[in-house]
């Protein structure tokens, strides 16, 4: 690789799109590049290698990626030795790889999520042969490669992937096609990584998987997610554990019992419901109905009265009527979500929902979307207002440049801003909530570095 006008080590710019799993994958990519001698930059003009880790979950995300790849053409013209690489979920889709091959000749390397651990070899092939390399076909689906180096972006929050892939085939979702079938890491490997993070001082550790509730089913000695969580919670130290994403079909009472009794497990549950209407849930192939979802929530709230619940919702699924959409509005009021990730349905190539009749015009779906956001704002504001006067254990993340206040999150993942010293960043602080503005809380330091439940 010619290192542009510096004669020093090569420099890489990594841009990550999409979910936390992609963020975790990018940390593995950076770990391998670092071992190869790369340093990192955010400036495209300085880079010898530009790599986009892409997301296929929505059409909008794909369009943005294509737009940004197109913009690299001019940089490549100015710096012909620049290597352009693309990876992630989008690259597992044959129609995308084909389009890159035909329409973006300046892209040097394309690889999918299954090939991340092969990055050094792929880069070598690209450089030595001077040819374009495309490696986007899934390999042995059961394979999990341990020991890939990781370069973590932060020093307070860390992500641990506990399983890969998904078996559920929700009718709108492309994940099982691009990330393959479910496979779980051995609990010993997870425990070892987790202990290392606690020892290194990480305070907020999130366990990642597309459907963590079905963790361990495919292992030779099956272990449930609740058992894994319980084992991790026994690791001594000052930290909190989160996990995502849970599927209501596989969530168990045992899981909520472990959460309630845990020393380090956040009372935060991200449980995507997607819709509050039984017919729509069936069309989505979600394998639960509204009552099953609500009964899980009732049990979880009984075990953890301070539980903060968040969710994902799709507005305007093909064939959804306004009356059915109203069932979603009533569900969010009934549950009292702290926050929601809401999306207007976006057809994904190769999924069952792509072929469904979708008679509701986009403009009408936009109106429903606004209605949902307004309802959720009200629900979140009421929930945050109910916290005023309470003292919360807050993990201080940073000083907010705009307000000058410290900013952190409660165990329930709600943002709290409060005045305090820089030395509090990266620690747990006891904060008395004094004010609620929609879904952001204001507070004051009650007692720092205090022992308290998560
Ligand atoms: S559970 Fe459904 S929505 Fe989630 S990744 Fe699997 S198929 Fe997609």
From TrEMBL:
<keyword id="KW-0408">Iron</keyword>
<keyword id="KW-0949">S-adenosyl-L-methionine</keyword>
<dbReference type="GO" id="GO:0035597">
    <property type="term" value="F:tRNA-2-methylthio-N(6)-dimethylallyladenosine(37) synthase activity"/>
</dbReference>
<dbReference type="InterPro" id="IPR058240">
    <property type="entry name" value="rSAM_sf"/>
</dbReference>
<dbReference type="Pfam" id="PF01938">
    <property type="entry name" value="TRAM"/>
</dbReference>
<dbReference type="InterPro" id="IPR006463">
    <property type="entry name" value="MiaB_methiolase"/>
</dbReference>
<dbReference type="Pfam" id="PF00919">
    <property type="entry name" value="UPF0004"/>
</dbReference>
<dbReference type="InterPro" id="IPR007197">
    <property type="entry name" value="rSAM"/>
</dbReference>
<feature type="binding site">
    <location>
        <position position="166"/>
    </location>
    <ligand>
        <name>[4Fe-4S] cluster 2</name>
    </ligand>
</feature>
<dbReference type="InterPro" id="IPR038135">
    <property type="entry name" value="Methylthiotransferase_N_sf"/>
</dbReference>
<dbReference type="InterPro" id="IPR013848">
    <property type="entry name" value="Methylthiotransferase_N"/>
</dbReference>
<dbReference type="InterPro" id="IPR023404">
    <property type="entry name" value="rSAM_horseshoe"/>
</dbReference>
<keyword id="KW-0808">Transferase</keyword>
<dbReference type="GO" id="GO:0051539">
    <property type="term" value="F:4 iron, 4 sulfur cluster binding"/>
</dbReference>
<dbReference type="InterPro" id="IPR002792">
    <property type="entry name" value="TRAM_dom"/>
</dbReference>
<keyword id="KW-0963">Cytoplasm</keyword>
<keyword id="KW-0819">tRNA processing</keyword>
<comment type="subunit">
    <text>Monomer.</text>
</comment>
<dbReference type="InterPro" id="IPR020612">
    <property type="entry name" value="Methylthiotransferase_CS"/>
</dbReference>
<dbReference type="InterPro" id="IPR006638">
    <property type="entry name" value="Elp3/MiaA/NifB-like_rSAM"/>
</dbReference>
<keyword id="KW-0004">4Fe-4S</keyword>
<feature type="binding site">
    <location>
        <position position="170"/>
    </location>
    <ligand>
        <name>[4Fe-4S] cluster 2</name>
    </ligand>
</feature>
<feature type="domain" description="MTTase N-terminal">
    <location>
        <begin position="10"/>
        <end position="128"/>
    </location>
</feature>
<feature type="domain" description="Radical SAM core">
    <location>
        <begin position="152"/>
        <end position="382"/>
    </location>
</feature>
<feature type="binding site">
    <location>
        <position position="89"/>
    </location>
    <ligand>
        <name>[4Fe-4S] cluster 1</name>
    </ligand>
</feature>
<dbReference type="InterPro" id="IPR005839">
    <property type="entry name" value="Methylthiotransferase"/>
</dbReference>
<dbReference type="Pfam" id="PF04055">
    <property type="entry name" value="Radical_SAM"/>
</dbReference>
<dbReference type="GO" id="GO:0005829">
    <property type="term" value="C:cytosol"/>
</dbReference>
<feature type="binding site">
    <location>
        <position position="173"/>
    </location>
    <ligand>
        <name>[4Fe-4S] cluster 2</name>
    </ligand>
</feature>
<dbReference type="GO" id="GO:0046872">
    <property type="term" value="F:metal ion binding"/>
</dbReference>
<feature type="domain" description="TRAM">
    <location>
        <begin position="385"/>
        <end position="447"/>
    </location>
</feature>
<feature type="binding site">
    <location>
        <position position="19"/>
    </location>
    <ligand>
        <name>[4Fe-4S] cluster 1</name>
    </ligand>
</feature>
<protein>
    <recommendedName>
        <fullName>tRNA-2-methylthio-N(6)-dimethylallyladenosine synthase</fullName>
        <ecNumber>2.8.4.3</ecNumber>
    </recommendedName>
</protein>
<keyword id="KW-0479">Metal-binding</keyword>
<comment type="similarity">
    <text>Belongs to the methylthiotransferase family. MiaB subfamily.</text>
</comment>
<keyword id="KW-0411">Iron-sulfur</keyword>
<feature type="binding site">
    <location>
        <position position="55"/>
    </location>
    <ligand>
        <name>[4Fe-4S] cluster 1</name>
    </ligand>
</feature>
<comment type="function">
    <text>Catalyzes the methylthiolation of N6-(dimethylallyl)adenosine (i(6)A), leading to the formation of 2-methylthio-N6-(dimethylallyl)adenosine (ms(2)i(6)A) at position 37 in tRNAs that read codons beginning with uridine.</text>
</comment>
